[in-house]
Design brief:
Length: 346
């Protein structure tokens, strides 16, 4: 053991780190949990059972392992790898605080550099694809948990953690509350179990249309598991064990965004009978699979294609106009040009 440091297994240190992150939103914890599970898996492969032995050379080896597909099974884009290594850096800073690694080790984490715009993912859910999925769910899985998850993410543009945080009492499906002109849902910051990403600043009412309100009402009266969470609250989206997890919401999107799930031909020429991406745990690796973040970017793109007011979209999505433009708007250069055509005399 290195002088002044206390021995600890990587998995134990990760558990302590995650337990101490009560300042972070649920979706942030989910992301850190996944990235650090990858790190623990690498430590197991390398026989590293004590973090006090971790070196800067090890960190470079881990970066290469992740970049080339370690744990995920596919090569990582630079923006994804940078996020992965940034989490490792934050984790090692914590480990230094508990005397598990050298105090300066976190500074040796090799963060990949990106070109201008390279910190922005270009993955998204095409608006037409989203509508096709919702049409399918509305026909074959009406008012199911899957239907509600996809419908709410698409219609409101909310984050997965915000959907998870909704309680039955946050719904006004009749639109009969004071100053209401129609149905709406209320996103409320309730730490530590269901915080919003931007805290109380992220609290807002989002209007929904009659169709969405009807689906929610039928879900609540039908297949919704009538259970409470650990705090005695009544979540909107539930499992038999209580409030739905962000990972379950994410897995739902991975499943339904694959064309083969709806019986459509595979655009990647895989055989559905033998394709590994059809099995649970591997669906996220399908090239067609999309995440809740992709739904959010697709929703922003649809708003922008509709020439809707940027300030109103910003309020609804709880993100600045600058962030929406940089991280979520996926209109092509040609689409932008065609939209500008209507505003200029050519």
């Amino acid at each position: 053991m290195t002088d002044g440091l206390e021995s600890i297994h990587p998995a134990d240190a990760v558990e302590l780190y995650l337990e101490g992150r009560d300042d972070a939103a649920a979706e942030t914890i989910e992301a850190h949990d996944y990235r650090l599970r990858a790190f623990v898996a690498w430590c197991d492969e390398e026989g590293i059972t004590d973090l006090t032995n971790l070196s800067g050379r090890d960190l470079y080896a881990y970066r290469v392992w992740r970049r080339e597909g370690g744990y995920s099974g596919e090569e990582l884009k630079t923006v994804t790898l940078r996020g992965d290594m940034a989490t490792i850096r934050a984790f090692l800073r914590f480990c230094a605080d508990i005397d598990a690694v050298r105090g300066d080790l976190y500074d040796q984490v090799p963060l990949p550099t990106t070109d201008s715009g390279g910190d922005v993912s270009d993955s998204t859910l095409d608006p037409e694809h989203a509508i096709d999925i919702l049409d399918y769910l509305g026909k074959f899985e009406y008012a199911s948990r899957r239907h509600v998850i996809v419908l709410m993410l698409w219609h409101t543009g909310c984050r997965a953690g915000e959907l998870r945080a909704l309680d039955l009492g946050d719904l006004d499906l009749e639109g009969d509350r004071p100053r209401a002109e129609g149905p709406a849902v209320h996103f409320v910051h309730r730490p530590p179990s269901t915080p919003l990403k931007n805290g109380q600043n992220g609290e807002r009412w989002n209007a929904i249309n009659g169709h969405v309100a009807g689906v929610l009402a039928d879900f609540i009266d039908g297949p919704r598991e009538d259970v409470q969470d650990d705090e005695g609250r009544d979540p909107l989206v539930t499992t038999r064990n209580g409030r739905v997890a962000v990972s379950t919401i994410r897995d739902t999107l991975y499943r339904v965004t694959r064309p083969c799930w709806r019986g459509e031909p595979c655009p990647h020429d895989y055989d559905p009978d033998t394709c590994e991406f059809t099995t649970y745990g591997s669906m996220s690796r399908c090239p067609s699979a999309r995440s809740p973040h992709d739904v959010r970017s697709g929703r922003v793109t649809a708003h922008r294609l509709g020439d809707e007011d940027r300030a109103l979209v910003s309020d609804r999505m709880d993100a600045s106009e600058e962030v929406l433009d940089k991280h979520y708007d996926r209109r092509s250069h040609r689409q932008r040009a065609e939209q500008r055509r209507d505003h200029f005399e050519l």
